Amino acid sequence: WLARMRGSRIPLDVVACNIQLKAHERMGELVAAGSLLTQMMREADGLPPPDACSYNTVIAAMAHTQPTKAEALLTTMLDTGLAATEISFTSVIVAYAKAGRPKEAGKWLQ
Question: What's the predicted TM-score (pTM) here?
């Protein structure tokens, strides 16, 4: 989808990238979602930097099966200076709770 936009010389903005991230999430394409977010973080290929919505989409996707990766993304998000939201924290807390790892979940409750 983003390639078609590039081919049509339509500028890629964060909204278009977030839509693509959400599509990857809904199709269960965690690797593709993570890859796109990484490209956005590097501003590779003219992509815009990610916003809180970008991070939250991938954090929520990773939280279903990979709580450690979800937490790493939340930490990266905070390190970049973006403000985390309730979605950011809740996704990580619930991920660890479902994985039977209450200690890690509790860390984010404080």
Answer: 0.90
